[in-house]
Design brief:
alpha+beta, 33% strand, 4 strands, single chain, globular, four-stranded antiparallel beta sheet
Length: 100
């Protein structure tokens, strides 16, 4: 299984608005691509950063599914997210493979 992880550090003043946007708009759009089988949202309890830190993890059945998402959907969805929350967050992404 491939895990695509977004870790995002948000200004505390917007984190509730961001979470609502993610749950109602962004994540449904990602899942509608059909390239991920599940997702989860986590909050980092002991983050050393200012603000609120979340991780959103999407599970893909194969690297090919992730690559299709990356090539065909990621940039459009990132642009919409950027437009909504410009300069109020820092994000980094990782792609991981589950070890059996």
């Amino acid at each position: 299984m491939i895990v695509y992880n977004d870790t995002i550090i948000l200004d505390e003043a917007i984190h509730q608005e961001w979470l609502k946007y993610m749950k109602t708009i962004h994540i449904p759009a990602v899942m509608a691509t059909g390239l991920f089988s599940s997702y989860r949202i986590l909050t980092v309890i002991d983050s050393p950063n200012e603000g609120v830190t979340y991780c959103v993890q999407y599970n893909a059945d194969s690297i090919e599914h992730f690559q299709q998402y990356y090539m065909n959907h990621l940039h459009k969805l990132q642009a919409a997210h950027q437009q909504m929350f410009d300069e109020k967050f820092v994000i980094f992404n990782t792609v991981m493979e589950e070890v059996e």
